[in-house]
Design a protein that fits this description.
The chain is an all-alpha fold. It is built from nine helices and no strands. Helix content is 78%, strand content 0%. The longest helix is centred in the middle third of the chain and has 30 residues.
């Protein structure tokens, strides 16, 4: 059992000192996960620290089954960050569809350029497709959460799920194929 796993278990059992000691151990990895999720095209307009701190708060406040180990913890973090990003995108889309209604002038091209809904829509569609995948094959959904939302490499995801890299690549390909079909069906 690693030091982090022991701290996580002690914190879960109510040890306040252990809960405080967890943060310095997990902060660098959590920051890497948050940063990986927020870079690239279509990234939500959240700051890395905002996603990181919101994720940690949600984890601290939510009831969970006992954590098996550090990999279980980081998988839970990836899932929590996914939900935060999706919630943020949904709120942003609600705003774009009239939540923050303003009178518009004749120049709507500037408004369209300022509101990149297409990327939000794709991420929300991905979230719905991922929920469908989780209903059919939860392990495939875990692979996607770790790789896409968690920013894990193949080796890190395989280690977190106790799989060989070859098995993880096969599951990743299967999950991507399912998601592509789901997303293609939604586009039609």
């Amino acid at each position: 059992m690693t030091a982090l796993t022991a701290l996580l278990q002690a914190a879960r059992e109510g040890d306040a000192a252990a809960a405080e000691a967890v943060w310095p151990h997990v902060y660098p990895e959590l920051r890497r996960i948050a940063h990986a999720r927020l870079r690239g095209p279509g990234a939500p307009s959240l700051a890395t620290e905002e996603l990181l701190h919101e994720g940690f708060l949600r984890l601290a406040q939510a009831p969970h089954a006992p954590l098996a180990d550090r990999h279980h913890f980081y998988a839970l973090v990836s899932r929590t960050m996914r939900h935060i990003v999706i919630d943020h995108l949904r709120r942003r889309q609600a705003q774009a569809r009239g939540g923050g209604w303003q009178a518009l002038g004749w120049d709507t091209a500037a408004v369209d350029a300022a509101m990149p809904e297409a990327d939000d829509t794709r991420l929300l569609a991905l979230d719905a497709a991922l929920d469908a995948l989780a209903a059919l094959e939860p392990q495939l959904a875990q692979v996607v959460e770790l790789r896409f939302f968690g920013g894990y490499t193949e080796a890190e995801a395989a280690n977190a799920l106790a799989l060989s890299e070859r098995t993880l690549r096969r599951l990743w390909a299967k999950a991507r194929a399912f998601l592509l079909v789901q997303l293609d069906d939604r586009a039609d």
